[in-house]
Structures
1.
Amino acid sequence: MKRLTFAFFILFSATLRAADPVDVLVQGAEDPEVQEIVAALGPTAEKTTIGPFTFWIGHIGPHRVAVSLTGQAVINCTTSTILGIEEFQPKLIVNQGTSGAQAPYLSLHDIIVGRRALDYGGFVSPVRAPGEGSAPLSWTTLPQQLRDPKTGALLAYPEGFEGDAECIEVALRTRNRMGRVFPGVIGSAHEINLELDRVRWSAQTFGMDVEEMESGHVAALAHAYGIRYIAFRVVSDAPYEGVPFYALAARATALFTVDFLRNLPPLPGTAR
Amino acid sequence: MSRRSLFLVALWCVAVVRGAPASPADVLIVADETVIAPLRGNLSDSVATTRASWTFWSGTLAGKSVVLARSEGDPLNAVAVTTLAIRQHAPRLIVTAGIARAHDPELRSGDLVVSEKFAAIDGMVTEHRELGEGSDGATWQKLPHALMTPGETEVYIDSFPADASAAAVALQLQPRSGRTISGVLGSAHQINREADRIAALRALWGTSSEDTESAHVAGCAKLFGIPAVGLRVIDSDPSEVTALTLQFLEAWK
């Protein structure tokens, strides 16, 4: 059995090769968020897995693309993003999917193009004795920090991370087949907020237009690696309007992402 | 050879073939700078690896091949450096160590809480409330993490397991002034100081303590099938955590 096992390792190792770099790493947390994009890769797309994470590699428009099913929230998306970056060395990361509206002007199927994205889940609460309750609107925010490898300093990013300017421009010229398109701010935390006072507090405190669970985390990782980044989030639920979560809204942002990639000129350094 | 061992060796093979200069390690210790720095001073044949914002050091400590990963004290940084270190060193065990705040009112400063299991307590969902009806963090419900598994399936899980044999070793450790207790280590990028919310979190998740990374590191470990154990000292000096981590390394086989 030992010999057989050893032979398996040798065979396993021999059949592997370093992945070729891609131009764009496109992410979605759930199946409905990536299905249309994987389909756009065409029938010759390659599928590969790293640990529990799946990537599909092919072409959309002029770009070599790896589509990544990240899973939801910070543990999944951080792990899969690090693996995706280390494996495929993308020039651009596109994170896209569904979100909850944090601003009353937004309706189902509207898409926010991320001017910036941030983690809004960190906080310090004041000391309150038993019986004094909990008052989230009085909490102090705790911004994401990253260590600057050049200086060694741990820097805080209370505003989050800006989206790539060229990508924002292209995205704002791309049609949303199911709704409107706005530039805005995307907030991430493992939270579903339906208390309208807290929703309004988040919008006022962070400038957030929508909330979801990954974009701000991936933005931090992209910033750390110096990789261009953009996020698109379709409104799939709107607490001001009483619209509950509508999973199929994911199709709108997936189609939008495919159209965006077709509109996006080849990235610098791409072989023609 | 167990399926887990097979997976770890396969992971290591992938890292080697795909260009990461991998060397398998016995233990990956994930902790913030205050805990890691003194350990780093004792690491022989130390090799530092920096990828983007994250650094880990490999070498020998207490007769074991050890990787020290600097977590920076929040879930994102902790998971990022854990992933990078796993990819390069495929450790047999992950130790997340540090200080914590008590959720269990019986805990005292200096007590060591050893992970029975881990709970990522950042997940929450609220009931609908109209404008003017306020917000109450003591009424929020829990939203477990859904970890990705092979086959593109996410599985919701309330808590992440701790390795029973490593936890048994840790339960023999002797803190300077406190007791050693088995408990549930909760983590979130939060510092909760409202007594009613702490009680609500404990009721929802069964937490003994809270810190800012341990359960997220354990969740990352679970993604790769690597056993994890947590050591958390309540309201302590970091040097106590460092000393207990060294004790653990010497005792663990």
2.
Amino acid sequence: MLTPQTLKKLRRFRAIKRGYYSFLILAGLLVIVTMGELLVSDRALIVSYEGELFFPTYGEFHPGSDFGLDYEYEVNYRDLGRSFKGSDNWLIMPPVPYSPLENHAPSGIFKPAGPSLAEQHYLGTDTTSRDILARLFYGTRIALYFSLAFMVCVYGIGIAIGCAMGYFGGVFDLIFQRLIEIWSNIPFLYMVIIVFSVIPATFSVPVRITILLTVMVLFSWTSMTYYMRTETYKEKTRDYIASARIIGASNTRIILRHILPNVLSTLVTFVPFTIVSAITAITALDFLGFGLPPPTPSLGELLKQGTANLRTAPWIVTSAFGTLVILLTLVTFIGEAVRESFDPKKFTIYR
Amino acid sequence: MHNQVLKFLLLTLWLIGCSESNEQLEETNQDNTSEVNSYYDDNPDFFTFSTKESLPQNLTWQNGMDLPDIGSSLAIKGGTEYSRLADFPRTLRVVGPDSNGSFRPYILDNVSMQLAHRHPDEFVFYPGLADSWAIDRDAKTIYVKLDTNARWSDGAPVTSDDFMFMFFFFQSAYIVAPWYNNWYGTQYTNITKFDDHTFSITVPDAKPDMDSRVLELRPIPQNFFKHLGEDYVERYQWKFQPTTGAYVIRDEDIKKGRSITLTRLENWWAKDKKFWRNRFNPDRIQLNVIRDTPKVFEAFKRGDIDQFSLSLAEYWYDKLPNDDPDVQGGYIHKTTFYNQRPRPTYGLWMNSARPLLDTKDIRIGINHATNWQLVIDNYFRGDYARMRTSSDGYGEFTHPSLSPRTFDIALAEQHFSKAGFNKRAGDGILVNDAGQRLSFTVSTGYESYKDVLTILKEEALKAGLEFRIEVLDSTAGWKKVQEKKHDIHFAAFGVNLEMYPRFWETYHSVNAYDVAFTENGAVNADRRLKTQSNNLESMASLDMDGLIDQYRISESKHQMVDLAHRMTELHHEYASFVPGFVQGFYRLGHWRWVKYPDGFNHKHSGDGQEFHVHWIDMDEKQETLANRKSRVPYPPAINVYDQFAQ
């Protein structure tokens, strides 16, 4: 894959500073959210209790009785830390010591509270006193993972079918084109809403997310096939394909080794925009209340809360909106840079 | 020649077309008078025609005229009130599909007249359409003399025939309303017409409140429904039915999807009547469709809407706090009014037919694992109170001492452990030996109470119980419980101002299963859940059934009180309901040009507008808006009316 031409494209991508740095930031962000539990969590990183070390971040929960408390449910590490004061025991909390689900109201009343360094609610709390930074963080993680998975699925299906249509042509192409025309006329957002309104809540959150992903992919793969089909048609008639065929290369070999690498550059330019649309779609669905079930943290849900409390709690909408803007801007910058550096007009002799 | 043939053909076609459409017209516009009359003839036991002479002589007629006035004599008529609808009404019909929505109170419940109404302070009846009435308990019959002045809004007099027709209407299958068919078919046994303004209605049981069964009836205008037929639903979809009340809707005031406006009848027949003269004051009530509550609030703050409910803590304390410039400037008044009436039953309804929930220990455990007190204290900011039983607010019929189970992790764990759940999984949820998790779906149709459920979820986790929250839209939520597909559902039954609570609908086994028990009293192994009933807990208990049956036929108030207490205890013991919260008051904000009587409102009022005792002062509106612009303040008004606090 890494032909000299591709390397040249990548070098050019690096030269476009805005897109390149956006890419680095986003990649960094992806790494950070992946190990999010170490940064944002109500579980301590390390607990030293009676000379024994605990690492509660991952794995099973520790009941209060593990640390000499009189209850069987998960220990509250922040309280535990306070009770350790003056003893040999100690613990280290993550920088944001809250889970995205717990209601933590210093004032005793569940209502939005403004950003506070002292309480370590760096972006404030939402309407039921949950930490906004924690919800934003995990909401972003879900949105990013979701859009990446979405992208992979859509491209997988789109490329396979589009390529097959272009390469085999004839009746196969004709039938599939008609099918796609019909399929792509089904309004996607409505379908998601309809399908999601009948899915029972008995499914766990990951299952529901998977179903949402499946439905969205089902109605989104078609657009990819158009580009793939035309590109494959174009490449198929070129001399090098004819030569490969004469030598006796199999269809699989021709498609995978010869056609795909040559059409991929067109596709790559679409990737960032697919991600943008996936993030927007899942945010919109959550905003409308058809996305992830409560209390799953999500950008759309925060945005909705924010717009409902514009006057009294502007920090909710600011953080949700800000995150969304930053995220989408980064991806768009990357997209622009990719498109510019992969622009076929720069490298091809066919004008 | 050809031309003539063509003309002839065209003419024939035209004629055929004409005759066809004429036939159709005749079919649908058929007058149903003969159908109605033959229905009366076919049911002579139900519909009786008698003469004035046969009216019993020894009746004691009463008319409630000694009751105090309603509203304030200071009220002035005129002006336009601006209010809000969450959704455009789907129909102007008051019966049949889609009719039971949030718009109906404006054309039926709060506006149109019954024979008599319960006095909002005294609970006894004052006259509406009736001039006087007499109760014969032995014969289970109520005699009614109609007010001879009573008129429909189209000018026709209200007569006994409209009440006869009311039974035809509600018993007919045309209206597509099975509940009405059942109620009007089983809760009444006879109507006898003595003359145009005198009739009697008989009920099957002489319950303590049998008078309300008859006096709270509303007639149906026979003349308007003379084309009642199979096409009822479509034909009357957007037709405003003549009313006996003060407000009508004119065709030009229906702006589909946007707004709908009520207009006060200048010559309303009851405008000078003792109990009606100080009410229904604005000339027009314009209802604009604004879907989102935050947007409604913004409209209210701009003065586009006159009043706004501040019952939710976030609005009362944060969005319109006492130090808000509009409140401090006295432009917007804030009012808390403590009322007395049966409370909506907000709580968790467990479907005891579901696996695990059929175990009593689990149900008790869930009761102890549900931290309503935290929700009340921290989310509702201590404004609401914990509900004690599912029949609070019925005076002596409410159990005097029973209290709900409190949030207690140890007790919850103890009961869960008795049911076999004594180990915790890696995420802290209890599991039994078979590896089954203690996990239930909590569904609701109330989007606005989503936060309450997330708080309960976090708290239940401490007791090792998992709530999976499912927020549905209101129709889907209700459908789910009506089909009994829920584990645990958060909902409330709206309750009417009634003398005593109902038990049959919610706790009798006939509303839980098709055949709940075999003949010898054992549990029927093949029983099937009954859908479309209000027994959301699928509660089936022979003891309860016995008590309910006694309660239904009991004619002694004393015995009914005793039965109500015993049933409430039984229900508490069964533990399938986690009582939530009750709100002993309502709060609202209103611009200062909206005026209320001295004590603000009446004891049994459910909200500020229910009895239409407020009025709009248009001059003051101009002045207030001008002064607000130039920042000329009035004394602020933040009032608490606790004369009826319990």
